Amino acid sequence: MSDPKSDTLTEAQLAVHWKEESYYYPPASFIAQANMTDGGILERFGEKNFPECYKEYADLLTWYKYWEKTLDTSNPPFWKWFVGGELNASYNCVDRHLAENRNKTAIHFVPEPENEHIQHITYQELWVRVNEFAALLRDFCGLKRGDRVTLHLPMTAELPITMLACARLGVIHSQVFSGFSGQACGERVADSGSRVLITADSYYRSGILLDHKKLADIAFDKAKEEKVVLEKVLVWQRHPGKYSAQTPLVQGRDFVVNDLLPKYRGQRVEPERMKATDPLFLMYTSGSTGRPKACQHSTGGYLSYVAGTSRIIQDIHPTDVYWCMADIGWITGHSYIVYGPLALGASTVMYEGVPNYPDAGRPWRIAEELGVNIFHTSPTAIRALRRAGPDEPKKYHYHFKHMTTVGEPIEPEVWRWYYNVVGKGEAAIVDTWWQTENGGFLCSTIPALAPMKPGSAGPGVPGIYPIVYDDDGKEVPAGAGKAGNICIRNPWPGLMQTIWGDPDRMTAVYFERYCKNKKSKDWHDWPYFAGDGAVHAADGYFRILGRIDDVINVAGHRLGTKEIESAALTVPEVAEAAVVAVPDEIKGRVPELYVSLKPGVTGDEALARRISKAIETEISPIARPRKVWIVPDMPKTRSGKIMRRVLGALSTGGNAGDITTLANPDVVEKIRDLVSRG
Ligand code: WT7
Predict the structure, then answer these.
(1) Is residue 431 lining ligand 1, measured as CB closer than 6 Å?
(2) Which of 126, 253, 312, 555 satisfies CB 3.0 to 4.6 Å to 587 for a cystine?
């Protein structure tokens, strides 16, 4: 990590030329009702009060026992928060709201088919369903605290119910995005050592009821290959009482949850008293090398952090109807569909399907019908909705007080459409920058206290002290107009505890880059290296440029180039594969793939299709390359490294730069010719 890559220009090294955008101010109507209007918060969360300031977040929760030590730094960089404290996440997100809000909707589940009724699940009903399912997990599966369970669940209410049932028992859940393939799921089952897989028979996507259970069979086999044999596969039915997958159940291994549940009717499960430092869940993400890694998130630190940021940055009040259009299969959904909003006792909306189904007016109809007043989505979704129906929002009578963007940089022009058309000029917008590893927001404006600046995330949120370093570890000061590597100087409660099963990777990837003294137990010596390029403007706002490692951000989701390349290499004809990221109008970035073939093999369209297919099967359709170029050879350095920068330039029609140092400069013209012919 520390030796600068010779064959790639980091985003940080690129000159930054962009026009400073002007501010937009939050409407008075927003400020009048906002949770946080006290400018003193920045002082309260300033370095002088660190780490005790985080009590303000932890106090939003109900604890069985208060902690004795706020932050333990004795084993860097494995920080421990709220040491000695005890709580249960399920209790905090469900039980404690019953006294005052038993009959209030906790989850609005919106099925994709528009003729199917929206389910309004009250806190009471959620409590009953979580308890009954927890009893099933405990008594039928024998699950207990510390066990891992993999979830491969689509966006139906059964997903948060399953997560909260696990949390009740202290079982560590690991939800794999439902759009991921059976193989990808199986790898994660094996890596986490899960005994049980919880899946669904089917779900709706673009009007089609997909057979999802067939992926469980593939996952089972894949995990078995890696010597992890699942004891049970639990299958939720999309239409209770009716099995809707074509794939048959495997006798003695697969069990339909809806058939088993009546046995547990009326059962109640006492929430486990978990230590604040016990893990709550695992969430896999892509890194620049090797296999996906599982970020291990804690119970007390994580829940405090998402509750605090949901209140201050998302401005969630218990009376709000909050809709985050992400998938719970990503960290955004864990933090800001499930744990944050439910910890605050709000009503959270879950939508099963694609935003454009059956037409681009769908999200706005949902917002109107449910009275959604907080809306949270990604630039990719915004670009897609804008293209499909630029005037649709005007047709519907909803009113957002607050909107969020997350996951990728947003172009100022797209931001302005979001503000003027989606938000009708009435909403405060926050652009929130963070990562799977972080648990919750790192940079954003506090909506009632700071103006918005299109394209910029904002300063560090309370208690987060970001800094931009150049490649030599010198600070790039605010207003220097130069990009660098954004880091967070301090620990915070939402930061993952470790990489599951691979603590060295935690240190190597996130802390070694700028660690001043590896023996030090002082957190000041251990800045967190985020792996993003950023510019720190004179006003203190950060503009995030994107990843500086071999990770492509497609539609707000990180894909490892190595993962895609290894998937391509499962096709026997492929000798070498290289992925580059190219700009895409809707998805921000998409992969293009270059492959060279083994001697004696010739390529054609059919082979290119087979390679694409392999990537879909191994990873997911979201990783599918826009184009597979079959090339005579890869441009290489003399030491044999593939020059991805040159390929990237060819894909985008840019300047390939100096190629004289290549071992095979001639191949560049040949590839350029091929690419220009399409
Ligand atoms: C990467 C993290 C955090 C939840 C969703 C993605 C990019 C994230 C922003 C933003 C510019 C952003 C970064 C980051 N990113 N938010 N507001 N502006 N870029 O989680 O899959 O872990 O990806 O997404 O490059 O490192 P993730």
Answers:
(1) yes
(2) 555
